[in-house]
Amino acid sequence: GIHLNGGLERIAPYNGQNDAQYETVSVTIERESHQALGIRLSGSWMESGIYITEVVPDSPAAHTALLCPYDRILYVNDEDVTNCQLQQVSSLLQSNEKVTLVVSRKRSTLPVSHSRTKSAPTSHDSEFSPSLSSSAPLSQKSVSCDSLTPPMPPHHAATINLNRDFTSQELQHKFITIVKEPNESLGMRIGGGLGSNEGDIPIYIANIHPQGCVGKTQQIWKGDILIGVNGNSLVGLTHGQAVATLKATVETAKVEMTVVEGPETSLGAFNFIPSWLYWQKLPRCLQFPKTVVLFRTPGASLGFSIVGGEDPTRGAQHIHILFVVQDSPAAKDGKLKCGDRLLSVDGQSLEKVEHSKAVSMLKQTGTKVVLEIVSWLGTEI
């Protein structure tokens, strides 16, 4: 899983190559033209700086034995990328079969894990359907996407709070026009959706065929959030509803897509599967909270501990569930998981609240406690 404090602490602002807290490493990766480099990247929504979040086992990057998760990429083939955006760095990395990186990492004795989180199992190659087969039933056709996560029953999504302001400035999106032949596939896959096996999450781009309609634009990347198609919002839809919306564009010659740049991407042919940190970095309006109601006898514990909170040295940190005690009210309810983000207690927001204050708020609750949380698959500390 992800060690919340240790992991996030290592992604600290880089204050120059000569900072005594940091070391720089030069790494040359050589690969065949058909091979992926084998690294997953992450960028911040608010700041510049591109980080490696994962090194794929048995990949060219892994074979160097020099790259680690949380390394910050400073140079790609002698080009300074310290202030570049995620898409620019992705393009540079894919442009050559031989890539030389200079990365920075914080000098630390913290152990680095190369294993994937539960939300990112081993990647696998993708296949794309170039066009619709007129003989296949509609449910089996791969038009512009393939169902990666079968949706759960619709009633599950009904508990989600959808009172969102999607015009807020924090949701910086772009409009991309895809020109294609009628009945031509868009050449991409989507994942996510409310009630999906991954949790209640927005629709994201899971894979793109490089020679497909979307791939040729070089404007949409794996990991981007797809929030609209031809004026129809995909926000708050189930996976199946989003697939149906995309299938409705099959016969059109032009598709307008509204996209929010994702905080992570991946290179190569395998499907992009978001990490736990990916969901943490999404704008608040793309996170779908749910309500958990716990009951306890007077004086009894709720049965969970928390980590995080406003801190004078670390700054603002989200409050997460650290541990759920067996046979407690929280465990018996079954909805709280280790790593879930805690938003409010009995209607009182925990935004910018110190840890001790949050603990006090929880202790002062009565026999019925109403919690608002955000939960993702693999939210494990």
Task: Explain how this protein is built.
With 381 residues, the chain is an alpha+beta fold. The chain folds into three domains: 22-106, Roll (Pdz3 Domain), CATH 2.30.42; 173-284, Pdz3 Domain, CATH 2.30.42.10; 289-374, PDZ domain (Pdz3 Domain, Roll), CATH 2.30.42. Helix content is 14%, strand content 28%. The chain has eight helices and 19 strands. The strands form five sheets. Strands 1, 2, 3, 4, 5, 6 and 13 form a seven-stranded antiparallel beta sheet that branches. Strands 7-12-10-11 form a four-stranded antiparallel beta sheet. A four-stranded antiparallel beta sheet has the order 14-19-17-18. Strand 2 (39-43) and strand 3 form a beta hairpin. The radius of gyration is 22 Å and the shape is globular. The relative contact order is 0.14. Residues 1-18 and 109-169 have low confidence and may be disordered.
Beta-sheet strand percentage? Answer: 25-35%
Termini, distance in Å? 6 Å
The quaternary organization reads as single chain
Q: Report the CATH topology name of the largest domain.
A: Pdz3 Domain
CATH top level class name of the largest domain:
Mainly Beta
Give the SSE string. HEEEHEEHEEEEHEEHEEHEEEHEEHE
Mean pLDDT across all amino acids: 75
Number of helices: 8
CATH superfamily grouping of the largest domain: PDZ domain
The appropriate CATH architecture of the largest domain is: Roll
Q: How many domains is the backbone divided into?
A: 3
Total strands: 19
Estimate the helix proportion, in percent. 10-25%
CA radius of gyration: 22 Å
Largest sheet, in brief, is: 7 strands, antiparallel
Protein name: PDZ domain-containing protein
Region (Disordered): 104-158
Biased composition (Polar residues): 110-122
Domain PDZ: 26-107, 175-261, 291-373
